[in-house]
Specification:
By secondary structure, the chain is an alpha+beta fold. It is built from three helices and ten strands. The strands form three sheets. The protein has a four-stranded mixed sheet, with helices on both faces. The protein has a three-stranded antiparallel sheet with strand order 1-2-3, with no helix packed on it. A three-stranded antiparallel sheet has the order 6-5-10. The longest helix is centred in the C-terminal third of the chain and has 14 residues.
Length: 181
């Protein structure tokens, strides 16, 4: 597919923060013209679908400044440089929910918005939940919530569940319930 590729001619960083870096690339297009691409570089992240013995999905309620609202999401977090995604997933699950998993099954790794960011999320399914220690980061304020599949569907309709990774988890849970996975 070389005929579709863009070649980077120049790149400059406009901002570098704790979580993201914003860069602008000048690219050579397949037709010989040039253009610019604004790109958010991200170290990657993980998310964890955890289900109680009663079949309830474990979520966290938290405020998201980018959307200026409180949401319900599956536990998730940013990868540290060089960190193994499974280790990160186990850490985030315990930090945000106070639960530990005996194991994880990888489900999929996906790009969140490839039109402008390289963020890739590693999605895991937790196995064997046990009590651990709730210890969110010092700038993280979350509440653990356990919802049935029907309650999750209602929260999607109301907009309280509105992020792709959590909608994916609800759909995966529906597939599990239907015996399709």
């Amino acid at each position: 597919m070389k005929h579709l590729e863009e070649k980077t001619i120049a790149s400059r960083t406009l901002f570098e923060g704790r979580v993201v870096r914003l860069q602008v690339d000048e690219v050579l297009l397949p037709n010989g013209n040039t253009s610019t691409r604004e790109i958010i570089k991200h170290p990657g992240a993980v998310c964890v679908m955890a289900v109680t013995e009663e079949g309830k999905l474990i979520l966290v309620r938290q405020y998201r400044k980018a959307m200026d609202k409180v949401t319900l999401e599956i536990p998730a977090g940013k990868l540290n440089p060089g960190e193994d995604p499974a280790a990160c997933a186990l850490r985030e699950l315990e930090e945000e929910t106070g639960l530990v998993a005996e194991g994880l099954d990888p489900v999929i790794a996906f790009y969140t918005a490839p039109g402008f960011t390289d963020e890739r999320i590693h999605f895991f399914r937790a196995r064997g939940l046990k009590r651990g220690t709730f210890r969110p980061d010092e700038d993280e304020f979350v509440e653990r919530v356990e919802l049935t599949l029907e309650e999750c569907r209602e929260k999607i309709k109301s907009g309280e569940i509105c992020d792709a990774k959590t909608v994916m988890a609800v759909w995966l849970r529906e597939m599990e319930e239907a015996g399709l996975r």
